[in-house]
Amino acid sequence: MKIRQMTSLVLCSGLFLLTMTARAQETESYLQAKPEDMRWFRDAKFGLFIHWGPVSLKGTEIGWSRGGERRGIKGVGPVPVEEYDNLYKKFNPVKFDAKEWVQIAKDAGMKYLVFTAKHHDGFSMFDTKLSEYKITNSPFQRDVVAELAKACHEGGLKLGFYYSPVDWYHPDYRTENHKRYIEFLHGQIRELCTNYGQVDILWFDGLGGTAEDWDSNNLFKMIRELQPHIIINDRAGLPGDFATPEQTIGTFQTERPWESCITIGTQWAWKPADEIKSVSECIHTLVRCVGGDGNLLLNVGPMPDGRIEPRQAARLQKIGEFLNQCGESIYGTRGGPFPPDSWGAGTHKEKNIYVHVLNWDSDKLILPPIKKRIVRNSILNGGVCFVKQTAEGIEISTREANKKKIDTVIVLELDGPVTDAMK
């Protein structure tokens, strides 16, 4: 009798452990994307961020320029709340062309697009069934998200949705009825994950909210069930799949994927006569992000009529011209072995190191030693360079005529994988 009891106890204990392990694995499976689902993102390097909504009629910042109460955070915007919340009644961007946006992104060498489905102001740029405060109730009447999703799918561009769990418009947000707001939030995310085909990225912007504020564990579980291959950022109170330094280049980090989100101008939404970054600054920012083993999500703010401002489109075109020539040193690479520094940054792929010299501080560039031998060297797209490798380091120089105006990409081919040289 005792033997049977002991056997039963052992079996029950084993079953309990198996159940707990299965539950732990289930939890882990929806909190984090699979490595194979992150691969495209780490290879893509460059994406287009788009902040757009009725606020473009004012030329002020999206969300933040809204006057009135900001539940959960201090501050009041310059546009009276009654005016801001009714801008959509005048919003009719008749020159919006989703295919044109996608083509601009592709011509820039971008591999994915992230669009603001809903910002902190609570306005939905999609045909949600859960709110009347939406684009299809504007004079425009069309579902912008649907058209953009279709254009991305047809154009081969990965698709992402920005969604702010913060909502200063919704009456239940951060009130005694906040649980009701969470139902609304989850319902809108369900719509975005159900009604627009494959979604590759969900980009939350929770302003420091906790996982409890958004019931993020259940939210992530629902998202992964609806979109099994999606990746999610780190702004819903959970670590997610990648970090998102804002308006700054992330630090060199190879263990965890990251993406710097940076505006092409001085604000996220369109601003008349905005000061936009030079071609050189845009390309240098991209190179330093990739050299740090991260991505760059470069933001534009379309105009009230639906067009991406020609000046901004022209900047993107110039970046695309650079990538047409030097893309092999960006796409599919990893950062290092030389982290970003005043002179530039290094990227690598297989046996090649790409030394991006953005600034020639002197006639010679001195780099630290590596554990593999350099067997060949060249300047990408033409030109001769001189490389001397010793136990103390690597010395690189070239004639003035070979130095490129924005980025001189020097290719160092090793006698083995670069990853072995970094160990």
Biggest sheet statistics = 7 strands, parallel
Assembly state (oligomeric): single chain
**Portion in strands:** 15-25%
- Judged by helices, strands and strand pairing, the structural class is alpha/beta
How are the strands of the largest sheet arranged? 5-4-3-2-1-7-6
Task: Output the helix-strand order.
Answer: HHEHHEHEHEHHEEHEHEEEEEEEEH
Low-confidence stretches: none
Radius of gyration: 25 Å
Q: Can you give the mean pLDDT?
A: 94
Helix content: 25-40%
Global morphology: globular
So how many helices? 11
Write the layout of secondary structure elements.
Elements: H1 2-31, H2 35-44, E1 46-50, H3 81-84, H4 98-107, E2 112-118, H5 144-155, E3 158-163, H6 178-194, E4 201-204, H7 211-214, H8 216-226, E5 231-232, E6 259-263, H9 279-291, E7 295-300, H10 310-326, E8 334-335, E9 344-349, E10 352-357, E11 364-367, E12 374-379, E13 385-390, E14 393-398, E15 408-414, H11 418-421
Parallel strand pairs: 1-2, 1-7, 2-3, 3-4, 4-5, 6-7
Antiparallel strand pairs: 8-9, 9-10, 10-15, 11-14, 12-15, 13-14
Helix pairs in contact: 4-5, 4-10, 6-8
